[in-house]
Design a protein that fits this description.
Layout: H1 2-9, E1 10-15, E2 18-23, H2 30-43, H3 45-48, E3 52-57, E4 68-76, E5 79-83, E6 90-96, E7 101-103, E8 114-116, E9 124-130, E10 133-136, H4 140-149, E11 166-177, E12 193-197, E13 208-215, E14 218-219, E15 224-230, E16 235-241, E17 247-251, E18 257-267, H5 270-276, E19 280-290
Parallel strand pairs: 11-19
Antiparallel strand pairs: 1-2, 3-4, 4-5, 4-8, 6-7, 6-9, 9-11, 10-11, 12-13, 13-14, 13-17, 15-16, 15-18, 18-19
């Protein structure tokens, strides 16, 4: 089935350590499109699951007449691939403003993944939480590489050196949106791991963006947050450490898109292993906005 799918829909190219798929026929029907998305998610997931997930809008300044299109992207270093919407991966998807919370339903196969008409005005936050997914690392060394990349080196002493690690993980992604008005509000923390914006990056009077990191609705202090930003030509990276109350601050530059990323990890206890069938549990938070 897999070979048939590849032969009929794609030629596979592998040169200079880069791989891409090139369609032989770009005119798919709806069923083929969904099968394509399902294929990419399920068969390539072993390479994608350890990477970052974030939301990125086609236009961060929405209006009430045009459909707001938002990609779900997976990648590293703020360079990612957009994926179509796939309902089984979603636990929660909702849009929040100062006055209400709107539960969103999307069609399987949507590309861009999230397509909504925002009828209210003001500052909005789009929230996306995934269901738990499971990852088995290729080797203990690959897991150690992950710990080093995320500055989680204190967990190295807990590694079982003769067992390839498995990990159950969830992602909590947000994107800040505005129609140009200053109707800012501060969210109530409700998720297992999340960023809360403390001011609006769309207010030109704010030269710094302030945020608070929460774990299970409580401030999560003294933790590293990776901040990526990009303009039309470059990607920039810095590390911001939250204070004891979970608050961090970063300098804003105009005409950049920002991604805040943090990961929390814990070794599974007895009950975790029964529930998740994994050695480790991780929680990933991301927050995106454009200055």
């Amino acid at each position: 089935m897999l070979i048939f799918f590849l032969i009929n829909f794609f030629s596979i190219n592998l040169q200079a350590h880069e791989l891409w798929l090139e369609a032989k026929n770009f005119n798919f029907n709806n069923q083929d499109t969904f099968l394509l998305i399902f294929f990419l998610i399920n068969f390539f997931s072993i390479n994608l699951q350890a990477h970052e997930l974030w939301l990125e809008a086609k236009n961060f300044n929405f209006n009430n007449q045009d459909t707001l299109e938002v990609d779900i992207k997976i990648g590293q270093g703020f360079k990612g691939t957009p994926f179509g919407y796939y309902e089984p991966l979603k636990k929660k998807l909702y849009l929040e403003n100062k006055n209400k919370k709107i539960i969103l339903n999307q069609r399987n196969g949507n590309f861009p993944a999230i397509q909504i008409l925002v009828l209210d005005k003001g500052f909005h936050i789009l929230n996306y939480e995934t269901n738990s997914e499971k990852l088995k690392y290729e080797s203990v060394e690959k897991f150690i590489e992950f710990l080093n990349e995320q500055n989680l080196i204190s967990f190295k002493s807990s590694i079982e050196k003769n067992k390839i690690p498995t990990e159950s993980y969830k992602r909590f992604a947000k994107i800040l949106l505005s129609d140009g008005s200053n109707d800012f509000f501060i969210q109530e923390p409700k998720l297992d791991f999340e960023f809360i914006a403390l001011n609006s990056p769309y207010d030109q009077n704010n030269f710094y963006f302030e945020f608070q990191l929460y774990k299970k609705t409580k401030p999560f202090g003294n933790w590293d947050v990776t901040v990526f930003s990009k303009d039309d030509e470059n990607v920039f990276k810095e590390i911001v450490k939250t204070n004891p109350n979970g608050i961090g601050k970063l300098r804003l530059f105009d005409n950049r898109i920002y991604l805040l990323s943090a990961v929390d990890l814990r070794k599974a206890d007895y009950m975790d292993k029964i529930k998740h069938k994994s050695d480790w549990l991780s929680f990933w938070a991301s927050l995106v906005f454009k200055r």
